[in-house]
Design a protein that fits this description.
It is built from 26 helices and four strands. Strand 1 and strand 2 form a beta hairpin. About 15% of the residues have low confidence.
Length: about 625
């Protein structure tokens, strides 16, 4: 019956006792010892173990032993941190949990003992205030007061995250004791049952068991066998040298109690012991000890084999890690730096080789600059310049093919490359290649800017209706993207900026591919003339032809063109013929606003039929006026 009670105590209380001890002490090895000693105490007082629910009684035993252990030795912070780490499949996640646990343990250890005990029982072990008060032997109001003051102190040390950390630690999976559950239970049971069966020798056996707190699971099983060997040794000590004579007076009166065996049966009138039975018991004890030793040796051999296999596995893992390191480094170079927003995780972004794209972009910009400088000098660029532009443009188009129709844009061409997720990853990858990578602060701010751009772009879409011209939508996109590009540029150091472009070509169409003019250069007609009057005449002819404006309505275009001419007055300073296509971002913005006003006026005047009105509303053209000097 006693053994049954102890077995039930193990079944009902082992895991809960382990959790309580770990949270109370903050050290896995000391918690191991406390639980073991608690079971030894239970074994020495088997009649005190309740018949039904054993946990409330046993919890008091654990708390008593934990208090004693904490008084004797308070664990150092470094030991807590190392012992409380709960290993898992993700090393980064395990490290974060260990740091959180260590920080919380340090804060708990600064509390007065009563407040610390109250919080451990209520917040880490899930006890009600009434249960915790009963466990500590204090009134419920006192317990609640300890909890409240303790939480206030934790808040002062940890801020608002204190209760969150407590909840996180309380909800964490139960960590296994040193050596695993099988080893721990074997050691605990060995100590407890030896105390139950060997009487005066229990203290020595339990003390020996306590020394095994850092053993592995198999070593824990060996401890259990060791206790069995100890029992065998006690028998051997009393029987290996049999008494010189067999009458009962030669043996002590309490021999059966000290040897742990049943009293010898008496045979015959002379009351002499049965020597054959004594010999049989001796043989059985020797056989049991031999078997136990063989099993222990087999377990030691298995442990050695497992340790060898572990070392081999660790060596293999380290070798594989070394082999994978350059591959992972290459993948990091190829992969995107940014994946923010609704489109940051599309296949075109995550699956593209950004290192190659950035290299191609750099080659195109470099050779476009060489091409334009040769043209301005009136020289013929080398064939190699044209080939490099063509070759690297084709490389960049692979990204366009993957994202066209996916990344939102109102532009007909290059809306994908001017999207913030594309722009950010291109400059980040080019800077990596140049050995000047973005800092963590720069990355965080660019991500914030990208998310803000997305919110602003989505807000702009809500104001459009069926009568909104495409050029107005393009203007909004052009301005928002231009602001994003400027904000990113301002974040870069001068050394980082020098990687991209000569300052004299910054924000110049057809040369600076990181400028937002990229989204309008292929759909914006450049209207040239010796003066603004000639440019205006060409614009009128273009509108009449493209939208079939009736002859009787041409005169109505006059006031509309007057307004347009006034709107573009700031960008019609004469330029050399070779420079007409090199307009700036700001000039493009002025031309776009003037075009939007022009298109809306034609739309509202009612001079077009339905077909041509629809064509006007869907048109991509932004008219760029350029007056040529010397003509």
């Amino acid at each position: 019956m006693t053994r049954e009670r102890l077995e039930r105590c193990f079944d009902e209380c082992a895991q809960r006792a382990w959790r309580l001890a770990v949270h109370w002490l903050g050290d896995a090895h000391e918690a191991f010892d406390v639980v073991q000693q608690a079971f030894v105490v239970a074994a020495t007082k088997p009649d005190a173990i309740p018949h039904d629910n054993t946990w409330p009684w046993f919890r008091q035993v654990v708390i008593h032993e934990a208090r004693n252990a904490r008084r004797k030795k308070r664990p150092a912070t470094s030991e807590q941190e190392s012992n409380m780490a709960d290993p898992g499949p993700d090393p980064a996640d395990a490290a974060t949990k260990a740091e959180t646990s260590a920080e919380l343990r340090q804060a708990l250890d600064t509390l007065p003992e009563r407040e610390r005990e109250a919080i451990v029982l209520t917040h880490l072990n899930g006890m009600t205030h009434a249960q915790a008060a009963a466990a500590l032997g204090i009134p419920v109001k006192t317990l609640s007061s300890h909890v409240s003051r303790g939480l206030d102190r934790l808040k002062g040390r940890l801020g608002g995250k204190g209760e969150t950390m407590l909840a996180s630690l309380a909800a964490a999976p139960l960590m296994a004791p040193p050596g695993g559950w099988e080893g721990a239970l074997a050691a605990w049971k060995a100590a407890a049952f030896s105390s139950l069966t060997t009487g005066a020798t229990a203290g020595a056996v339990a003390t020996g068991a306590l020394m095994m707190k850092k053993s592995l699971a198999i070593a824990g099983m060996i401890v259990a066998l060791g206790v069995g060997l100890g029992g065998g040794a006690l028998i051997m000590q009393s029987t290996s040298n049999p008494p010189p004579r067999t009458d009962i007076s030669a043996a002590p009166a309490d021999a059966s109690e000290r040897s742990g065996s049943a009293p010898l049966e008496m045979t015959g009138d002379d009351s002499k012991p049965d020597v054959s039975e004594w010999s049989s018991r001796l043989d059985s004890a020797r056989a049991a000890e031999k078997q136990a030793r063989e099993e222990a040796e087999a377990l030691r051999a298995k442990l050695k084999t497992l340790e060898s296999e572990r070392d081999t596995a660790v060596a293999s893992a380290e070798k594989l890690e070394a082999e994978l390191a350059p591959i992972r480094a290459e993948q990091a170079e190829r992969g995107p730096t940014f994946t923010f927003g609704k489109y940051g995780t599309i296949e075109g972004v995550t699956g593209s080789n950004w290192k190659e794209l950035a290299g191609a972009s750099h080659e195109v910009i470099t050779n476009l600059r060489l091409l334009r400088e040769a043209q301005l000098k009136g020289e013929q660029p080398s064939r190699e310049v044209y080939l490099k532009i063509q070759e690297n443009t084709e490389k960049m188009r692979t990204y366009e093919y993957d994202t066209i129709g996916v990344l939102p844009t109102w532009a007909r061409h290059n809306g994908e490359f001017t999207h913030p997720i594309s722009h950010s990853n291109l400059i980040a990858s080019e800077l990596k290649t140049a050995g000047l990578p973005l800092s963590e602060a720069q990355i965080a701010e660019i991500k914030r800017l990208g998310l803000q751009w997305e919110a602003d772009y989505d807000a702009a879409q809500k104001k459009y209706n069926d009568a909104t011209p495409r050029v107005e939508k393009m203007l909004d996109e052009y301005v928002l993207k231009g602001a994003f590009v400027d904000a990113v540029w301002d974040l870069l150091t001068q050394e980082q900026r020098d990687v991209f472009i000569d300052p004299k070509w910054l924000h110049v169409a057809h040369v600076d591919l990181y400028c937002t003019t990229l989204m309008i250069i292929h759909t914006s007609p450049i209207l040239t003339g010796a003066d603004i009057g000639e440019v205006r005449t060409k614009l009128q002819q273009t509108l009449v032809k493209n939208y079939a404006i009736p002859e009787d309505q041409i005169e109505a275009l006059g006031p509309i063109l007057d307004t347009w001419q006034s709107d573009v007055a700031g960008i019609i300073a004469p330029v050399a013929k070779a420079q007409t296509q090199f307009y700036t971002y700001d000039q493009g913005a002025i031309a776009a606003r003037a075009t939007v006003k022009l298109v809306k006026a034609i739309r509202d005047y009612g001079m077009l039929d339905d077909e041509h009105r629809a064509a006007l509303l869907d048109a991509y053209e932004i008219y760029i006026p350029r007056v040529i000097a010397g003509e």
